[in-house]
């Protein structure tokens, strides 16, 4: 408001300066040099007042800008304060120990999944391969129980008569 009042004052003084300049010219034409000199001194004084007024307006504008910037800073600080309070509440809910426990569980789960992926991908170590082969041998020996092999030699193969020749001849059955 004060800045606006000073600008209005500047306009009035500027208009007054123009009138006094014109009046000083007229007085010089009329030969009234003393009166024209007095008006020019007054005009000079008012010009200095205009310069001072301009400096005051500049100071006021700078102050308004500083106030606006301070208000912005206050909003930023308030936002930081609220954010800090939220972080503190979140920290109360979740302790460092809880976070470490969750991270540990996550790492265990990731390691377990990696092992499953390796098995499915067939990237087994030599120890794993050996253990798997031993288990396979154990399972196959459990399941297959072979009969004992006779210790006597098998007889030589004797050619038998053709089964068609030894077949009895069909009898004719009379229809009754």
UniProtKB/TrEMBL annotation:
<keyword id="KW-0813">Transport</keyword>
<dbReference type="GO" id="GO:0000815">
    <property type="term" value="C:ESCRT III complex"/>
</dbReference>
<dbReference type="Pfam" id="PF03357">
    <property type="entry name" value="Snf7"/>
</dbReference>
<dbReference type="GO" id="GO:0006900">
    <property type="term" value="P:vesicle budding from membrane"/>
</dbReference>
<keyword id="KW-0967">Endosome</keyword>
<dbReference type="GO" id="GO:0015031">
    <property type="term" value="P:protein transport"/>
</dbReference>
<comment type="similarity">
    <text>Belongs to the SNF7 family.</text>
</comment>
<feature type="coiled-coil region">
    <location>
        <begin position="28"/>
        <end position="70"/>
    </location>
</feature>
<keyword id="KW-0653">Protein transport</keyword>
<dbReference type="GO" id="GO:0005771">
    <property type="term" value="C:multivesicular body"/>
</dbReference>
<keyword id="KW-0472">Membrane</keyword>
<keyword id="KW-0175">Coiled coil</keyword>
<protein>
    <submittedName>
        <fullName>CHMP6 protein</fullName>
    </submittedName>
</protein>
<dbReference type="GO" id="GO:0032511">
    <property type="term" value="P:late endosome to vacuole transport via multivesicular body sorting pathway"/>
</dbReference>
<feature type="region of interest" description="Disordered">
    <location>
        <begin position="144"/>
        <end position="176"/>
    </location>
</feature>
<dbReference type="InterPro" id="IPR005024">
    <property type="entry name" value="Snf7_fam"/>
</dbReference>
């Amino acid at each position: 408001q004060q800045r606006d009042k000073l600008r209005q004052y500047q306009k009035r003084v500027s208009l007054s300066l123009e009138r006094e300049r014109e009046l000083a010219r007229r007085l010089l034409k009329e030969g009234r040099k003393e009166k024209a000199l007095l008006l020019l001194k007054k005009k000079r004084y008012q010009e200095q007042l205009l310069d001072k007024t301009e400096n005051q307006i500049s100071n006021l504008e700078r102050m308004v800008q500083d106030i606006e910037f301070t208000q912005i800073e206050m909003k930023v600080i308030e936002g930081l304060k609220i954010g800090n309070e939220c972080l503190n509440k979140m920290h109360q809910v979740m302790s460092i120990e809880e976070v470490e426990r969750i991270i540990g569980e996550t790492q265990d789960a990731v390691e377990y999944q990696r092992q499953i992926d390796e098995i499915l991908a067939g990237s087994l170590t030599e120890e794993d391969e050996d253990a798997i082969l031993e288990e396979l041998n154990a399972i196959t020996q459990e399941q297959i129980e072979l009969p004992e092999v006779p210790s006597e030699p098998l007889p030589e193969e004797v050619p038998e008569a053709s089964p068609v020749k030894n077949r009895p001849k069909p009898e004719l059955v009379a229809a009754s």
